[in-house]
Amino acid sequence: MRYLYTLAMYLVTPIIVMRLLARGVRYRDYHRRWRERFGFYQGPTLRGSIWVHAVSVGEVNAAEPLIKALREAYVNAPLVVTTVTPTGSERVRQLFGDSVYHVYLPYDLPFAVSRFMQRVRPRLAIIVETEIWPNLYFACKKRGIPLMIVNARLSERSLRGYRPLQGLVRSALGCVRQIAAQSRTDAARYRLLGVEPARIVVSGNLKFDMPVPYAAVQAGEELRRKWGHLRPVWIAGSTHEGEELPVLEAHLQVLKRLPDALLLIAPRHPERFRLVESSVRSLGFSMATRSADRVPSAAHQVFVIDAMGELMQFYAAADLAFVGGSLVPIGGHNVLEPAALSRPVLVGPHTFNFEEITLTLISEGAAVRLADASELGTAVLQLLRDAERRKSMGMHARVVFDSERGAVQRVMELIDKQLQE
Question: Which residues form the 3-deoxy-D-manno-octulosonic-acid transferase N-terminal domain (predicted)?
Answer without folding.
Answer: 33-210
